[in-house]
Design brief:
The protein is elongated and about 105 Å long. It is built from 35 helices and 34 strands. With 918 residues, the protein is of the alpha/beta class. The protein starts with 10 loop residues before the first strand and ends in a 5-residue tail after the last helix. Helix 6 runs antiparallel to helix 7 (197-215), helix 21 packs parallel to helix 23 and helix 23 packs parallel to helix 27. The strands form seven sheets. Strands 15-25-24-17-18-19-20-16 form an eight-stranded mixed β-sheet. Strands 27-28-29-30-31-32-33-34 form an eight-stranded parallel barrel, surrounded by seven helices. Strand 33 (868-871), helix 34 (879-888) and strand 34 form a beta-alpha-beta unit. Bound molecules: phosphoenolpyruvate and magnesium ion. Magnesium ion binds next to helix 31. Phosphoenolpyruvate binds next to strand 28 and helix 31.
Length: 918
C-alpha cells in the first residue's frame, strides 16, 4: 500500500500542562522554544507558562532556501496552534470584545543575546483596544501597550526588515522615542508611567501619522498582518548584519537558522500588582547558592533591560548599592515571590545547573517566560561546580566539565574591576599575552621602570618590543605593553612565566620615544607618568587608573575541591617551565608534577645576574679554549647553585634542565662602560673586543649558532653544565633529599648531535660518580624535538634519547616559516581575514605542526616503546592544545607556573572527552 507522506511538522504547541516538544529538541525548537516546552509540558514541572507555539528552525531554513517563502502547510499549522492558545487563554486573536495579544520572539539553538528581534502586544488595533480596555479595566495600560507595539513594529518590521535606510541615520524608533521624551520633558515627568491616558491617546495618533509620513506606509490594523509581519521580521533578523557578525565571532553556522516563538502576552505593566523581572537560581557573580534577581513593578521586560529605571532586588540577598533603598519583591508580593522561589528551586533540580529565568507577574499571578542555563564568571563557575557536586546534584565528570579551563585565569590573577571596565571605553587593543588586570604609570624604558619602582611608583612599561636587557624593568613593572611582537615574543613569554599582565603587538598605538609619549589610533595622547589600566586577558588598554579585584586561591575551598576531582580524573601529567626556586615553589603549589623546562640561560637575566653574566660574557669573548675554560670554571659555581636551589624545591620530581640554547651574541653587552670593563678583564683593546662582538653577528640568529650547535662547537660549555647538574644532584642526594634531573639537548636535528653530546655526558658522569664516591646518580638523557627534521627522524633520535620534549615554539616557527619574534607584523591580519583560524604560536596547529608532533611521538615510540614524551612550548598552557597532546598520547605537558591549573583542568577535560577519565 502506498504510504501517504505526512506533512512535516513546523509548529510545536506548548501550554496548559502539555507540550509537543521538550528540552532535548533545541536544534529544532531553538533554546528558548525547547525550554518553554520543557517548563510547560514536562510532568515534573508543568509550570505556569503562557501558552504559545514555536515555528521551528526548519521554517527558517525553508524560508531562506525558497526566496523568503514559507512552507504551504505552515499557515494551517499556525492557525491550529493559535486556536489552542485561544482556547487555553479563553480569548480570541483579533476579537473586538476579548482579544488575545501575542508576542513574537526569536530563539536560536545557541543564545545570541540582543542580536535578533522581538515584537510585543501584537493584535492591538483601533477596535481590539476597546476589548482590552474592557477586559483589563485599564485604558492607560491599553494605550501604553499600543504605543509600544507601534514603535516596535515600525522599527523591527517596517523599517529594518523592510530594508529602509533611516534618513540621516536616525531610525524610526528614535524619531518616536523623541516624541515621547518631548512630552515627558514638557510636563516635567520622570517616568513613562507618568503619562496620562489622554496624553497616551494623542501619542498613539501622532505615532501612526509619523510612521506613515516617515516610512511611507501605514501601521497595519489587521492582527494577522501584524503577526506574519513580525514572524518575517524575526526570520530576516537572522541574516541581519549584527546577527551575522555575532555568529562569525561565536562560530555559529548560518545554516542553523532561528526558531520563532509566538506566545500569549501576559502583562507586567497592569498596575502596581504587576511586575516583571530576571533572576538566577544562584548568584552568577560569585556562585553562592542563593536566589538572586531583579524586578520592576508595573513594567514590561524591555524596561528591565533598557535600564531606564533602577531595578529593585527580589530579596534581601540581591540588594546592591544602587538598589538598597528599594523594596524587595519578597516584601511587596510575598505570595508570588514564594511561588517564584519554589519554581526556581525545582527548575535547578530539574536541569541540574544554574538557571537564568525571566518572569512576569500579572495582577498577582506569576508566569514563567523563559529559563536557560545561566552565564557565569570563572569564580562563580568553580563555586557552583564544587557545590553542586557536594550537594550530589551532579557527578564528578559533570562538575569538571562545568568549568572551562580558561575560566580559572580569573581565580589566579587580579582583574580590573568589572563594573568600572564596563563603563569605560578602551583606547587600544593588542594581543592578550599575559592575563589579568594591572594599572600603573607609563614609563618607556627599562631603566625608568626600575628607578620609578624604587621610588614606590607602580609603573607600566611601554615599549616597541622587549629584549633580555629589559628584564629587570619588566620585572619591576605592573604590566608590559608592546606595540610589536606576537604571543611568543620575548615580552609575552617572560610576562606569562611570571603571571604578569602583558599586551603585545598593540599596533593601535605609536610610541614617540624622544618625547616619551605615545598616541593611540583613537587620538588619545599619553605621556610619561600618565595612568593606564590594562586587561591582559582581553588585550585591552584603558586610560586612567581602575580598581583591581584580588582573589586568594588558598582560601578558595571550592577550587581545592574541584582540583581534587580533576586530579583523580586526568591521566596526562602537568609540569612547569621554571628556573628559580620561587617559580618552582609557586608551580608546586598550583599542582605541578615536575619541571619540564629549566632554561639555564635565565640566570643571566634580571636581578642578581650581574656576576654570572659578566663571566658568561668573558667566556663568549674568549678566543682560546684555555681562556674559555677559565671563565667557565668561574661560572660553574653559579650554574651549580642555580640548578641545585631549584631542584631541591622540586623534592625529587623530575627536573628537565636544558643545555644552553640562545645564540651567544644575545648576551653581548652594548653599552660602552660594560665593554670597557670586559676589555680590561680580558686584557684586550676595546677595538679588538668590538671586532669579536661583530664577528658574532648573524643574519638569521634563530637559525644560527644556537642550541646543540654551541655544544658541538664548544664542548667545554656542555661539560661545565653537565658537571654542575651531576654535582648538584649528588649533593642533594647525599644530604638525604631527593633529586631527579633530566638533561635535555636543544635544537637538535640529527642523532649524531645527540651522540656527540652523550659522549661528554658519559665522561662527566663517571668523573662525578668517582669524585662524589657514588655508584650511580639517577638521570635521563633526552632531547627537544623542535626542528621538523628531528620529528621526521624521531625513530633515529629515540635510539639515543630517553625522552623527547617537543619545543612547539620553534617547531611552529620552523614549520610555518614564521619568525616567532616578528609575527606581530602580519598575524593579526591573517586572523582577521581568517587566513588562519588561530594564532599558531598560542594554539597548536593540529593539522600541520600537530601532525609532526604525532608522527614524532609514534616514530620515537616505535624505537623505544617506553619513550617519555612531553611538550614544553607555550602550547603546554593552552587548553585546546593540551587536549590534543593528551590524544597524541604524551606523558606530560609543561607550562608557565600560572598556567598549571589551566593545564590540569584541560587534561581532565581531555580524559573525560576521550572516555578515559576515571
Ligand atoms: C620551544 O621552542 O618550544 C621551547 C620551549 O624553547 P624556547 O622557547 O626556549 O626556544
Ligand atoms: Mg626552542
Amino acid at each position: 500500500m502506498a504510504q501517504i507522506k505526512k506533512a512535516a511538522k513546523y509548529v510545536y504547541y506548548f501550554g496548559g500542562g502539555k507540550a509537543d516538544g521538550n528540552e532535548s529538541m533545541k536544534n529544532l525548537l531553538g533554546g528558548k522554544g525547547a525550554n518553554l516546552a520543557e517548563m510547560a509540558g514536562h510532568p515534573k514541572l508543568r509550570l505556569p507558562v503562557p501558552p504559545g507555539f514555536t515555528l521551528t528552525t526548519e521554517v527558517c531554513t525553508y524560508y531562506y532556501n525558497n526566496k523568503k517563502k514559507y512552507p504551504a502547510v505552515l499557515d494551517a499549522q499556525l492557525k491550529k496552534a493559535l486556536a489552542a492558545v485561544e482556547k487555553e487563554m479563553g480569548k480570541k486573536f483579533g476579537d473586538v470584545n476579548n482579544p488575545l495579544l501575542v508576542s513574537v520572539r526569536s530563539g536560536a539553538r545557541k543564545s545570541m543575546p540582543g542580536m535578533m528581534e522581538t515584537v510585543l502586544d501584537i493584535g492591538l488595533n483601533e477596535k481590539t483596544i476597546e476589548g482590552v480596555i474592557n477586559q483589563s479595566g485599564d485604558a492607560r495600560f491599553a494605550y501604553d501597550a499600543y504605543r509600544r507595539l507601534i514603535m516596535m513594529y515600525a522599527d523591527v518590521v517596517m523599517e529594518k526588515a523592510g530594508g529602509i535606510e533611516p534618513k540621516g541615520g536616525k531610525g524610526i524608533r528614535k524619531v518616536l522615542d523623541e516624541k515621547l521624551e518631548k512630552i515627558k520633558h514638557k510636563k516635567g515627568y520622570k517616568f513613562d508611567t507618568d503619562l496620562t491616558i489622554n496624553e497616551l491617546k494623542a501619542l498613539v495618533k501622532d505615532f501612526k501619522a509619523t510612521v506613515l509620513k516617515v516610512l511611507g506606509k501605514p501601521f497595519p490594523d489587521d492582527p494577522y498582518e501584524q503577526l506574519w509581519g513580525s514572524i518575517g521580521a524575526v526570520f530576516s533578523s537572522w541574516m541581519g548584519k549584527r546577527a551575522c557578525e555575532y555568529r562569525r565571532i561565536e562560530k555559529i553556522p548560518d545554516e542553523w537558522g532561528t526558531a520563532v516563538n509566538v506566545q500569549a502576552m501576559v502583562f507586567g505593566n497592569m498596575g502596581d500588582s504587576s511586575a516583571t523581572g530576571v533572576a538566577f537560581t544562584r548568584n552568577p557573580g560569585n556562585g553562592e547558592n542563593k536566589f538572586y534577581g531583579e524586578y520592576l513593578v508595573n513594567a514590561q521586560g524591555e524596561d528591565v533591560v533598557a535600564g531606564i529605571r533602577t531595578p529593585a532586588p527580589v530579596n534581601e540577598y540581591s540588594k546592591n548599592d544602587q538598589s538598597r533603598h528599594l523594596p524587595t519583591l519578597e516584601f511587596i508580593m510575598p505570595v508570588a515571590y514564594k511561588q517564584l522561589f519554589d519554581i526556581q528551586r525545582r527548575l535547578e533540580k530539574h536541569y541540574k545547573d544554574m538557571q537564568d529565568i525571566e518572569f512576569t507577574i500579572e495582577k498577582g499571578t506569576l508566569f514563567m517566560l523563559q529559563c536557560r542555563i545561566g552565564k557565569r564568571n570563572g569564580v562563580a563557575a568553580v563555586k557552583m561546580a564544587s557545590d553542586m557536586y557536594n550537594e550530589k546534584l551532579i557527578d564528578a565528570k559533570t562538575a569538571i566539565k562545568r568549568v572551562a579551563p580558561n575560566q580559572l585565569v580569573e581565580l589566579l590573577l587580579p582583574m580590573l574591576d568589572p563594573k568600572e571596565q564596563a563603563a569605560t571605553k578602551a583606547i587600544a587593543k593588542g594581543l592578550p599575552a599575559g592575563p589579568g588586570g594591572a594599572k600603573g604609570r607609563v614609563v618607556f624604558t627599562s631603566n625608568d621602570a626600575v628607578e620609578w619602582a624604587a621610588k614606590g611608583e607602580k609603573v607600566i612599561l611601554v615599549r616597541e618590543e622587549t629584549s633580555p636587557e629589559d628584564v629587570d624593568g619588566m620585572h619591576k613593572s605592573q604590566a608590559i605593553l608592546t606595540t610589536k611582537g606576537g604571543m611568543t615574543s620575548h615580552a609575552a613569554l617572560v610576562a606569562r612565566g611570571w603571571g604578569k599582565c602583558c599586551i603585545v603587538g598593540c599596533a593601535d598605538i605609536e610610541i614617540h620615544i624622544e618625547t616619551k609619549s605615545f598616541k593611540a589610533n583613537d587620538g588619545t595622547f599619553i605621556k610619561e607618568g600618565d595612568w593606564l589600566s590594562l586587561d591582559g586577558t582581553k588585550g585591552l588598554v584603558y586610560l586612567g587608573s581602575m580598581g583591581l579585584v584580588d582573589i586568594d586561591l588558598d582560601k578558595n575551598l571550592a577550587y581545592k575541591n574541584l582540583m581534587k576531582l580533576v586530579n583523580k580524573t586526568r591521566t596526562l601529567k602537568v609540569r612547569t617551565n621554571a628556573e628559580t626556586p620561587e617559580d618552582a615553589a609557586h608551580a608546586m603549589k598550583f599542582g605541578a608534577e615536575g619541571i619540564g623546562l629549566f632554561r639555564t640561560e635565565h640566570m643571566f637575566y634580571g636581578e642578581g645576574s650581574e656576576q654570572p653574566l659578566f663571566l658568561l660574557r668573558k667566556m663568549i669573548m674568549s678566543k682560546t679554549e684555555p681562556e674559555r675554560r677559565k671563565a667557565l670554571n668561574d661560572l660553574f659555581v653559579f650554574v651549580k647553585k642555580d640548578i641545585k636551589d631549584t631542584m631541591e624545591v622540586m623534592k625529587g620530581y623530575p627536573v628537565t634542565i636544558r643545555l644552553l640554547d640562545p645564540p651567544l651574541h644575545e648576551f653581548v653587552p652594548h653599552d660602552v662602560s660594560k665593554l670597557q670593563e670586559l676589555s680590561k678583564e680580558l686584557g684586550i683593546s676595546l677595538s679588538m673586543l668590538r671586532r669579536r662582538v661583530l664577528a658574532l653577528h648573524e643574519n638569521n640568529p634563530m637559525l644560527g649558532h644556537r642550541g646543540v650547535r654551541l655544544g658541538v662547537s664548544y664542548p667545554e660549555i656542555t661539560e661545565m653544565q653537565v658537571r654542575a647538574i651531576f654535582e648538584a644532584t649528588a649533593e642533594i642526594l647525599k644530604s638525604g633529599k631527593k633529586a631527579f634531573p633530566e638533561i635535555m639537548v636543544p635544537v637538535t636535528c640529527i642523532e649524531n648531535e645527540l651522540i656527540h653530546q652523550k659522549i661528554i655526558v658519559d665522561r662527566v658522569y663517571k668523573e662525578v660518580c668517582d669524585s662524589k664516591k657514588m655508584k650511580k646518580i639517577p638521570y635521563l638523557y633526552g632531547t627537544m624535538i623542535e626542528i621538523p627534521r628531528a620529528a621526521i627522524k624521531a625513530d633515529k633520535m629515540a635510539e639515543i634519547a630517553d625522552f623527547f620534549s617537543f619545543g612547539t615554539n620553534d617547531l611552529t616557527q620552523m614549520s610555518f616559516g614564521f619568525s616567532r619574534d616578528d609575527v606581530g607584523g602580519f598575524l593579526p591580519k591573517y586572523m582577521d581575514l581568517k587566513v588562519l583560524p588561530d594564532d599558531p604560536f598560542q594554539t597548536i596547529d593540529q593539522d600541520g605542526v600537530g601532525e609532526l608532533v604525532k608522527l614524532g611521538t609514534d616514530r620515537g615510540r616505535k624505537t623505544k616503546p617506553n619513550l617519555k614524551v612531553g611538550i614544553c612550548g607555550e602550547h603546554g598552557g593552552d587548553a585546546e592544545s593540551v587536549k590534543f597532546f593528551h590524544r597524541v598520547g604524551m606523558n606530560y605537558v609543561s607550562c608557565s607556573p600560572f598556567r598549571v591549573p589551566i593545564a590540569l583542568l584541560a587534561a581532565a577535560h581531555a580524559a573525560i572527552e576521550s572516555g578515559k577519565g576515571k
